[in-house]
Amino acid sequence: MAGTAVTRAEVEDFLFAEADLLDGWQLDEWLALFDEERGGLYMPSTDSPDSTHTETLFLIADNMTRLRSRVSQLLSGLTWAENPPSRTNHMISNVRILGTEGDALLVKANFVVYRMRFQNIDPYIGKYRYKLLPRAGTFKILERRVILDLESLRPHGKVSFIV
After folding, report:
1. DSSP of 14-61
2. Could you report the per-residue pLDDT of 97-116, keeping only the tens digit for each?
3. CA-based torsion, 138, 29, 58, 159: positive or negative
């Protein structure tokens, strides 16, 4: 992809593959999609979606060290809130390439994630904002921002899985 135009279809295929890894709880493989040094996962609070994690309290603000720890905990079976693991279905649509920032591609997509657990179905609705680095025919995630369109995190008040 380096030196050539990246297509929306290539970005969509990458996002769809990422969603499939999350739905299959293949979290080690999902973690490998991130840039090893600079990757990060961010989820601002629902009342401040355009804020920055350095100036505002976020629901999730994970650099790679924290992200590896989160994945390790989720896969250990010892995380009470995800034992047994939730079943999820990530639906991604309206993928758009917004431009570039340095060597990163700026991408926006809408999502609905259905979480099934103990006979309950909880929808999580919002937008993803990515900074993707084209690498060796695929991408590395530099930044994955999850912006929830929910007014609150009800009924449970938490996010214990990866949206």
Report:
1. HHHHHHHHHHTT-HHHHHTTB-TTT-EEEEE-TT-TT--TTTS-EEEE
2. 999 999 999 999 999 999 88
3. positive
Strands 104-117 and 40-44: unpaired
Phi and psi based region of residue 70 (left: phi greater than 0; alpha: psi -120 to 50; beta: remaining):
alpha
Q: CB burial class (10 A; 0-12, 13-18, 19+) of residue 163?
A: buried
Cβ(21)–Cβ(30) below 8 Å = yes
Tokens of 86: 């939730």
Residue type, 6: V
Domains of the chain: 8-80+93-148 (3.10.450.50)
**Chain position carrying tokens 């921002």:** 145
Block residue for tokens 């991604």: 92
With beta carbons less than 8 A apart as the criterion, state whether 114 and 88 touch.
yes
pTM value is 0.89
Q: Report percent pLDDT > 90 for the chain.
A: 60
Token pair for residue 92?
A: 């991604």
